[in-house]
Amino acid sequence: MAALIRRDGDRDEIPPGTLYMLILKTLAVRGRLHGYEIAEYIQSSSYEVLQVEEGSLYPALQRMLVKGWARAEWGVTAGNRRARYYTLTPDGKKQLRIELSQFERVMGAISRVIETA
Amino acid sequence: MSFAGECKRRLQMLLHRDEFQRELDEELRLHLDLRREQQVARGAAPEAARQVANRRFGNVTRIRERSYMAWGWNWLEQSVRNLKYGARTLRRSPSFSVLAVLVMALGIGATTSLFTIVRAVLLRPLPFRDPGNLVMLYEHYRQNTGGDGFNAVAPGDYRDWRSQTHSFEDMAAMRGYGGIISGVQSELPEVVQSAGGSANLFSLLGVSPVYGRTFTAAEDQPEGQPVVLLTWSLFQRRFAGDPSIIGKQVHLDTIPTTVVGVLPSWFAYPDAKIQFWLPYAQTFSPADYGIHDGHQSMVVARLKPGVSATAATREVSALQYQIHVAHASKPVAEDVWSRPMIEDLAKDVRTPLLVLLGAVGCMLLIACLNLTNLLVARSATRRREVAVRGALGGSRVVLVCEQMTESLLICLAGGGLGLLLSLASTYWLAAHWRNLPRAESVHIDGWVLTFTLALVVTTALLAGLVPAVSSTGKGLLTGLRDTSRTVGGGSARVRLRKTMLAAEIALTVVLLISASLLFKSFLHLRTTDLGCRIDHVITMKFGLPEIQYDTRDKVVRFHEALLERLRRLPGVRGAGLVSVPPGAGPSGDRVFSILERPAPSYSLQYDAIALTADPQYFNVMQIPLVRGRVFTQHESLNNDHYIVVSKKFVDQYLTGDDPVGKHVRVVWDTKPEVYEILGEVGNTVNDVTKPLQPTMYFPILSGIPDRTSEATIVAYTAADPLTMSMPIQQQISALEPELPVYNALTMDQILGKTSASQGFAANLVLAFAALSLLLSAVGLYGVLSYLTTQRTPDIGLRIAVGAQRSQLLRLILFEGLRPALIGLIVGVAASTLTAQLLRSMLYGTRPLDPASFAVAGTMLMAVAVLACLIPAWRASRVDPIQALRTE
After folding, report:
1. Residues B222/B285, Cβ–Cβ less than 8 Å
2. Which residues form the domain of B604?
3. What is the ipTM of this complex?
4. In terms of domains, do B467 and B522 share one?
5. Are A25 and A69 in contact, with CB atoms under 8 Å apart?
6. What per-residue confidence (pLDDT) applies to B377?
7. Residue A55 belongs to what domain range?
8. Hey, of A43, A57, A58, which one would you mutate to test binding to chain B, going by the most B CBs within 10 A of its CB?
9. CA B617 to CA B559: how far, in whole Å?
C-alpha cells in the first residue's frame, strides 16, 4: 500500500478511486453538506488519517454533478455565510452501492493476499 | 443516470458558464475562509493562519481549471481559443484573407454547382417506379457508320418485340410529334411540341395523371377516338389549371380532340418542352403503323425481375434478326441495343458535365495549393515562436491544430460564400444549358450541403496540414537556431513549396490545353462554312393544316401566292421555300437506289438527306449550281419526278460522274417512285456538329400535302433581317389568318443555336482555365517574392563581391522558372491523356492539336516569366550596403 498512499506527516492521502465512494458515503450519512464540511467530515471520521485535498475534492464534486449523483443548492451556513450544499440523488445512492461492493471485493482480495503471505 | 439528462446538465452548465465560475469562486473562497478560521480557532496568528490555509489549499487556478474540465467542455474552449486566435491572425492581414476567402469561395462554389447538376442529371434515380429496371431499346445496323449506333425504332418492330418477347414485364413506345393546339372555334392557335405515347407508357413508368385518366388500349389505335393528355405546364398556362377541361374538346391540328387527363407537374419526360401527349398509334396512318422501315420511335421497356439487361437484349435482338431477314430488301436493322434509361437521358451531356466537373475540380485543387503555399510562407514567420512553444512542452497536436484553424476559417468562410455563389450560379447554369435533361430536378438539397461541407473540410485539411506539420516538425532546434541570417534552414520547405508550385502549374496547363481545344472546336463550329448565304437572311417556319390543305393544288396555290407576296414586299431582295434551312439541325433522310448505278449489295445502303425546295431557293441562298439546272416553275404538281442533288451526293454515290439525267428510286411510304436528276448544287451543312451528308432536293411545288405542307421561308433582306419578321408574318396572315408561324430566326441565330451548347462548355472551361492561370501566376509571384526577400542578404553579399546585376536577374528568374518548366512538361504530358477524354466534344479539332498545345504552353510561360520578372528585377536592384546591414 506504500505505493498507493503517500505519507505526509501524520496524515494519509485518499487512495485513488475511493474519493467518490467517500464523498458519496459522507453525503449518505450526513445528508446535506458543503465542500468544507465534506472534507472535514472525512478527515474527522477517519480519525484524522485521511486528508481530502481541495485540489481533488472540488473537481470530484463537479464530476458528481455532471453524472447526476449529487445535487447542489445554495444555502446559508451556521456562520450566516452563503454556501453550496450537496445532497445525494437516487442515482448517487445507486452509485454508492456499486462503489461499496466494488471496494469490498477489492479489499477482500487484497487482505486475502496479505493474510496468506 | 440517463445519458440525456447528463447532456442536458452539461449544456446548461455551458450556457451559464459565467455563473458557474462565480459560484465556484465563492465556494472556494468560503472553504479558504473556514480553513483560516479553523486555524485561528486553534490559536494561530491571523497571518500564519492565512498561510497555512493557502498552503493546504494549493493552486486555486488549478482547482478551478480541473473543476471546469470535469464538465468536458475543454475541447470547445480550446477550439474557441484557436478560432479567436486564427481570426485575429486573419484580421491582421485583411487583403490576404479576403483574397484567400474569395479564391476558395470561387473554387468551392463552382465545384458545388457542378456537383449539384451532376447529381441531378447523372446520379439521382429517375422519378419513376423502380427506375433501375427501365431500359431503352434501339435498333442497331451492323453496317452503321455514322452516329453512336443507337437508332430509332420502327413501329412494326416495336409491336413485334412487345408481342413476341418474354424477358420484359412490358414495353412501351413513344415518338416526338408536333401539333397546333387551338380552341374549338380554332381560336388562339399555338404551335407546340407534343409526343405520342403508347397506352401502357404511363403505367409502365408508374406515372398516374393528376386529373382524369391515361389512354386506353382502344384509343391507342391508328384510327382510335382522338384523345389528348395535357402536361401540367400546358394545363396551367392555357387552361388556368381548371380541371373542368377534362372531357371537353380542343382542336389539335384542327381535329376535335377530347382531353382525357392531366399529367403531374414533375413529369417532364423526355423533355420539358412537350406540351401534350397523343396515343402513340394515332400518330401513324393505318398503313404506317406496321412498317419496319420507318424509324422514329423510342422504346422503353421494364425488365422482368431477375432478368439481366444483357439476356433480355439478346432475346429481342434475335427476334429483330428474324425481322431483318424477313424484310431483306428494306432498311431494317439486324440487332437491338439497349441502355439503362438514366444513361439514355444523359447521353449528350455526360461527357461535357464530367469535363466541367473535372475542370472545377482542378481549379479547386489549384486554389488549395495556392493557399497552402501562402500559408507556408506565413507560418515561416512564426517558426521561432512555434519552436519556443514546442521546446517549452507545447503539444505538437495543439500546435498543429492551432495553425490548422487558420485554413479552416478561410475554407469555412470560402465555403459559405461559395454556397451562396453556387445557389445563384446553379440555377443560372441549369437554365442556360441548352437541352440539359432533367434540368427541372436541379436543386440544392441535403446531399449537396453535405458535399460542400466535406469539400470545406477536405480543402482545409489539404491547405492547412502541410504548412502546420512542416512548421512544427522535426526542426525544433533548427527553428531556435535559425536567425534571419541563415538562408539554408528552409531548404526542405523551399523544395516543398516548389513542388507544390510545379503541381499547380501542371494542373493549369491541363486546364489551359483543354480550354484551348474546346474553344478552337467551338470557333470551328461558329465559323463553319454552311455553303450558303448567312448574312441578311431570315427564316420562318409554318405548317399548313392537312385538313384544309388536303390536295396538291391547294398547297401549291398557297406556296406560290405566299412567295409572290414576299417577293413584292419592300426590303425583301429574294424569297424561297425549303423544308429545313441549312444549319438548323437534322432533317429526315431517305433510302434510295440509283437505277444507272445499282448498289453492289443490299447492306451498302444508299441514303441521303431529303429536302424540298422551290426553284428560287438556291439563288436566294447563293447555293452554287455545279452542273445541269435547278427547278423551274414547270416542275410542279404532278410533274414532280425531278430532283436536284448536292455535290457530296455526286461524290459519294456517283464517284463524281455527271449526275444529270440519271435516275433515282426513292421509297415514300410504301410506293417506290423514280426521279430524274436535273442538276448538281454545292453542299450545305445540315448540322455543324456532324459530318457533311449527301442531300437530295425534291420540288416543294409538287404540293404533296404530307411532304410539302411544312415549310420554312428563307428571305434575303436589304436591312437587318429581324426587322422583316413582322412584315413577313403579316403577309402570311393575309393569306391564312389562323396559321401560326414559329422559329423566326436569322441564319446567324440558327448557327448560334446549334453551336450554343458547345460554346457554353468551351466558355466555362476557358473561364476556369483563365482563373487558374491567374491563381498560378499569383502563386509563382508569391513564392518567388518570398524567396527573394529571404535571400536579400545573400544577394547583397554577391553584389558586394562583384556579381553583375544581369547575372542576378538571370539567377532569380531561373529559380522561378524551373518549377514552371517542370509543371509545363508534366502538364503537357498529362494533357495528351486528358485530350483523349475530350475527343467526343471536339469538332474539326484533333485531340492532339499542336496549335492548341502551343498556344496554351506559350501563354503559361509568358505569364510565368511576367510573374517571376518582378521579384527578379527587385532582387537585382538590391542595395548591397542596405542588404548587409539588415542582417
Report:
1. yes
2. 545-738
3. 0.84
4. yes
5. no
6. 74
7. 7-116
8. A58
9. 13
